[in-house]
Amino acid sequence: MHLREAKGILNAYNGMNISRGCIHGCIYCDSRSKCYRIEHDFEDVQIKSNAPALLEDALRRKRKKCMIGTGAMTDPYIPLPENLANIRACLEIIDRYGCGLAIQTKSDLILRDLDVLISINKKAKCVVETTLTTFDEDLCKILEPKVCGTRRRFEVLKTMRDNGIQTVVWLCPFLPFINDTEENLRGLLDYCVEAKVYGILCFSIGLTLRDGNREYFYSKLDEHFPGLKTKYQKKYGFNYAITSGNNSALMKIFYEVCAQHNIVCNNDALFEYMRTFEEKSYTQMEMF
Predict the structure, then answer these.
(1) Edge-to-edge strand list for the sheet holding 46-48
(2) Predicted model pTM
């Protein structure tokens, strides 16, 4: 871990990352890709030491309240004290300025800030997003070794539900020959149904590989699934989009289950929902 003062905090879409790099160890992580130009070891997390000050300054100058998004590139709950203090401070600033929040994480450490999330949701809109990839807990420990398992993330979704906070699940990636099965998909969808998630983002049954994350992914295939790298290379070459042969059948199941349980599964609609600020009326606030 190392600290660095940043020059800015919000992008054009009001998205922010308070750190760069990660120690979760997910074998498929796209953020390792060279195109993102991380100039330090990925596991040597760079923490933006002045993130709270930058965010406060940015929100002070905004004419209108907005949704703030975080977690798209780097999980906001990297388990380092400096990082956890930063994300807490940023959430408190968002709450103080009456803005909304769309926050994406795989970590149950988000529960430590549940009180702030509830407060944000009383005034505006808070959306908690998490990624689910693998129903099998033993397999999850291989694919996502240093973060809480799928069952625990399911518990987080239920906690958010019980506190009136809407949730969105990123159902991805599905790794061909590993977790691209009907059993896995249905197990994850059962979790989503029980947790009453607002929506599910699922682009296809597959994953993406670019320079940087491809090499890391293949090294982990060699470590945990001997011989599978050769199978990938033969079938997919250097393709960016790695689509499972089970894509059509599994996506059909996905859309059917979402329709049956009124779960929003249109990706464009979900992104629009998470970016649209909604201020609670006094009547709504009194209901909490």
Answers:
(1) 2-4, 46-48, 19-20
(2) 0.95
